[in-house]
Amino acid sequence: MREKNAHLRPEDRRIIKHCLSNKEKLIDIASAIGCDPTTISKEIRRNRVIYKEGRNKEKCKSLIRFPYTCNHCPLKYGSCTLTTYIYDNEKAQYKADSLLISSRKGLDITKEEFEYIDKKIKDGIDNKDSIYNIVKSDDSITVSVPTIYRWISNNLMTVKKHNLPYAVTYKVRKKDKEKYDYSSKNNKIDRNNRTFIDYLSFRMTSPGLYASQIDFLGTIKSDSKDILSLIIPELHFPILKLFDKPDQNKLKEFIDSLEKALGLRDFYKIFPAILGDRDPIFNDFESIERSCLGNKDDIRCLMFYCDPYQSSQKPYVENINKQLRKYFPKGYSIDRFTDDEIKTINIILLERKVASLGGLSPKEAFIKIYGKEIYEKLIEAL
């Protein structure tokens, strides 16, 4: 027997149509479905539709009492001059679903609560914050993150879908041949044991070690500055550094500064391997790998390279660069930014709560694994 007050299911409506076409009794239809005959009667009358308009205004007796339709009548396709009605299970199901959705529309929240949430979301988005972090950082917001996104999609909030990053599809990127063409000189570099397959092998044979990914954000041609992104993927932990006319020597100096702040042992613990693309600035893997402390043969990390034109092999740093576009839109200069401003943005990203970290921020996750002292040393070095 069906549960009391349960909605009719699609298979129930198929049974009704089949039984009507075979002249089954009302009580037999109700028994087959497991509900009251009155429910079947109301369902048929509510959802019957006109199959054919008749020339005769007189009403067929079959429409006045059960079966209330002409499903069983062989004359409905031809010689009948009366208006004919049929029960169509698919149309009945669609109508029922639409009614159910419309009956559940509206917000299960007071006007004051909604206005508060709306303002918080608007202020947060204006400050380049994420929906997830806004919701999780304010205990007064009692609705879920998916609910907020649904309200935005339904145009119920001040924030609109186009205000969200990546909600609007980007145009196809135009490649700058001078920028993306890896020269023959670059291709002659011996990357044996440092390919993407070697990187995967390292990950497989080194459980418990987190491999980082590195990349430059990319700027307009007139800019002399660029932003380096170094991220620990599992922790969503980004390190940002502003470079003025970046080159191999400046990259080495930056990595040296991190090693000096952390010490060789802790540096290797945090950055045992780094995956980058084939940007010429990353070519000097020896200067990246060799420690600036102690013996010159000491290795502080391993450098690996993606295959040419395969940015998808380092998706985490690509994702961080997309997030940075909220602060540094494409086509706008970053030369006006200072080291302190980049560090401030870096701290914001580190303190933003992340769903895939169980609601923790990258900072909290890092401290939980490596400790607060190492975190403070690392931030001080930026």
What would you note in describing this structure?
This protein is α/β, with parallel strands linked by helices and 382 residues long. The protein has three domains: 10-103, no CATH class; 111-163, no CATH class; 190-380, Ribonuclease H-like superfamily/Ribonuclease H (Nucleotidyltransferase, domain 5, 2-Layer Sandwich). Helices cover 42% and strands 10% of the residues. It has helices at 10-21, 26-33, 37-47, 89-103, 111-126, 131-136, 145-153, 177-180, 184-187, 196-205, 248-262, 264-270, 285-289, 315-324, 339-350, 362-370, 372-380; strands at residues 48-52, 84-87, 211-216, 225-232, 237-244, 273-276, 302-305.
Numbering strands along the chain, what is their spatial order in the largest sheet?
5-4-3-6-7
Distance between the termini: 69 Å
Radius of gyration: 33 Å
The tally of structural domains comes to 3
- Average of the residue pLDDT scores: 86
Can you count the helices?
17
Q: Regions with pLDDT < 50 over 5+ consecutive residues?
A: 177-184
- Globally, the shape reads elongated
Superfamily (CATH H level) name of the largest domain: Ribonuclease H-like superfamily/Ribonuclease H
CATH class of the largest domain: Alpha Beta
* Series of H and E elements: HHHEEHHHHHHHEEEHHEHEHHHH
Proper CATH architecture of the largest domain: 2-Layer Sandwich
Number of strands: 7
